[in-house]
Amino acid sequence: MLKLEMRPQPSRLMSWLSPLIALVLTVLIGIALFSLLGKDPLKALQVFFVEPLRSGYALAELSVKAVPLVLIALGLAVCFRSNLWNIGAEGQFVLGALAGGWVAMQADAQSSRGIVLLILAAGVAGGMAWAALTALLRDRFNANEILVSLMLVYVAEMLLSWLVYGPWKDPQGYNFPQTITFLAPTKIPRLVDGWRMNIGVLVALAAVVAFTLFLFRTYRGFALQVGGLAPAAARYAGFSSRGALWTALLVSGGMAGLAGALEAAGPLGQLTPYVPVGYGFAAIIVAFVGRLHPVGIVFSAVLMSMFYIGGELAQSRLGLPKSLTGVFQGLLLFSLLACDTLIAYRIRWSRPS
Amino acid sequence: MNEFALLLAATLSAGTVLAIAALGLLINERAGIVNLGAEGMMLVAAIAGFATAVHTHNDWLAFAAGAAAGAVMAAAFGLLVIWLNTNQYATGLALSLFGTGFSAFVGIRYTQEKLAERPHFEVPGLADLPFVGPALFRQHPMVYLAVALMLGLAWFLYRSRAGLVLRAVGESPESAHALGYPVRRIRLAAVVAGGALCGVAGAYLSVIYTPLWVEGMTAGKGWIALALTTFATWRPARVLLGAYLFGGVTMLQFHLQGEGVQVASQFLTMLPYLATIVVLVLISRNPAWIRANMPASIGKPFFPGG
Fold this sequence. Notes:
The complex is a heterodimer.
Chain A: E1 2-6, H1 12-36, H2 41-49, H3 56-81, H4 89-105, H5 115-141, H6 145-165, H7 200-217, H8 219-229, H9 231-237, H10 241-268, H11 279-289, H12 294-318, H13 324-344, E2 345-349
Antiparallel strand pairs in A: 1-2
Chain B: H1 3-30, H2 38-56, H3 59-83, H4 88-107, E1 121-122, H5 132-137, E2 138-139, H6 141-159, H7 161-171, H8 173-178, H9 183-209, H10 221-231, H11 236-258, H12 265-284, H13 287-292
Antiparallel strand pairs in B: 1-2
Helix pairs in contact in B: 1-6, 1-9, 1-10, 1-11, 2-3, 2-4, 2-9, 2-10, 3-4, 3-9, 6-7, 6-11, 10-11, 10-12, 11-12
């Protein structure tokens, strides 16, 4: 019989290997799934793991998807490390896009390029405000943050839908549910002509450094993590759990909002009902697969954006639904969680006595 | 039927989806396990049930397929959480994300199909009562089965020995283990039963309630069902009541839209989600109330000898 046995010490080797084993498992299960459904698994693998890396342009596209994932996942990592389950990042992302988009719509042709900073600041504020609702209800009334933040995702999507079908609808838009196309000065500056890759890449890298310092080099970051790991010890040490609640939710909401504003004024350039594409949910997986560590998050975000691009390619090339992205994302998280068991436990073969 | 009766009939039907799923989740949670994968299980079951109904024209087979789909997914969740000790919240989320993607993936070729409206079951004699007759007694059998399920579950939990053991496992797995009960197997059984019921709810949604398949058609019903168990403070009768209440809010939204109320439809669509938040707040603000029936070890892992 196979038996799990607790290791005397968590295995450092396994904590590095586990994401790799999980990826291999995901690919294997994916192959099995494709074969079962009568699709050519090799073609699918090529679409998911080769095509997104084939050219400079493809890599730039990869960055377009990876940036929002990195930003949101960094914030979520702070939340999860303090044992707060904000799973409403998708809604906070939408509010960031709405707030940033509103500022962008106020611009005229003479506006200075400085307005981009205002747009991003508005995005942060929008995301924070949405997360603050969850924090407030948890703090004042002890309402479960998982369910509240998730319900607010649906509310945010309805708000977006109302605005683009109603007050914010472009009168010259042939009755499509969309806002005006944002004017040139509001566009997030691109890094290379002709590619959609923009300064979001630099923002994300700066955020990775900032979060690494915050989590591992500041008192506040330390207090947050102790609160998550051992609430009793944190209370004894005098770390405020209310402070942790608000910090973690505001930080993660702000990051999701920043991602939303970057997306709205960047690749999208206007608001439509299709602003939310699941980055907020995928970022949960990114955070876990990245071990809740800023550097790990960069790697897992790149992997996850491969799944996004793979899903889009699977749709256009193989006629498969885009939702394959979600299948692979879910499988990856499953495999990772299972493999992580090997960090704390080892498998022993024991004869049934 | 007059308008009120129509609204009442629709409320019962909408509430039934939530009631069956939430009663299933209640079994889970009474055993100490929270499964955030309800949304994913319901979606996969919805397409499994719908596809079965399209091919076999047999609704009961469709429900069975939905239950099987939910049970298989719950078993995968249970094995990870109970035997490999993975984080319950993260694993449940993975199940939801996987289920949402997977159901859309296999469901794509069924998006054009439509099932015929299902005949209702008329309770002899009572169905012809004025006013409430058609609303209460001309429903799909599953509506009545949901009520029976609640009664059965209440009896099981509070009057049967097995129910006592199940509750013990959720309150104090250590004590149950010390008494010699196979805690992990009991928890797995509870999780699988919960998944099967979420599956039945999903199949009811796609086969009877709508009846068609749309990507992401649960639109948060799995999450609302999860909220309902908290709302009901883990009591079966209150779960049923809460489910009808939410069914009513959902229906009210369509009703108001039909009446041509001067509010953008998006605000009406928000209602059930806002109602969930409001209700959670109202319930949670009283710690004594919420703790009274809350399984003490809910969400906490148990690993014998670890």
